[in-house]
Amino acid sequence: MVAAQLRSQAQYRTSFAIDVVGSVLFGVLDIASVLVLFRVVPTLGGFGFAEVFLMAALAVTAFAAADLAVGNVERLRVYVRSGLLDAVLVRPLGVLVQLTALDIAPRRVGRLVFGIAMVVIAVGHAHVRLTPHSVALLVITPVAGAAIFGAVFVATATVAFWWIESGEIANGLTYGGLNFTQHPITIYGEALRRLFAYAVGFAFVAYYPTLRLLDRADPLGGPVFLAYAGPLVAGVATAVAALLWRIGVRHYRSTGS
Amino acid sequence: MTLIEARGLRRDFAITSKAGWLRRRTRVVTAVDAIDLTIERGEMVGYIGPNGAGKSTTLKMLTGILSPSGGSVRVCGLEPVPQRTQLARQIGVLFGHRSQLWWDLPLAESFALLRHVYGVRESDHAARLARARRLLELDAFLDVPVRQLSLGQRMRGELTAALLHGPHVLFLDEPTIGLDIVSKQAVRAFLTTLGATGDTTIVLTTHDLADIERLCRRLIVIDQGRIVHDGSLEQLHARHGSRRRLVVDLDEPLAMPLALPGAIIESVQADGRRITYALDGNVTSTGEILRRLTEVAALRDISVLEPAIEDVIARLYLRRSSDPVHDAAV
Amino acid sequence: MAIGPRMIRAYLALAAAGFRRYATYRQATFAAAATNSVFGFLRCAVVFAVVDAGARIVAGYDRAQLATFVWVGQGLIGTVLIWAPPDFADRIRSGDVVTDLLRPVDPVWHLLAIDLGRAAHSMATRFVIPIAVGALFFRLQTPRRPGTYVFFALSLLMATIVCFGCRFLVNAAAYWLLDARGPHIGWTLASGFLGGLYFPLWFFPDAAAAALIVGTPFPSIIQLPLDVLVERGSPADQLVLLTIQASWVVIMLALCRFVQRRGEEKLVVQGG
Question: Which residues of chain C are within 8 Å of residue A189 when distances are taken between CB atoms?
Answer without folding.
Answer: 41, 45
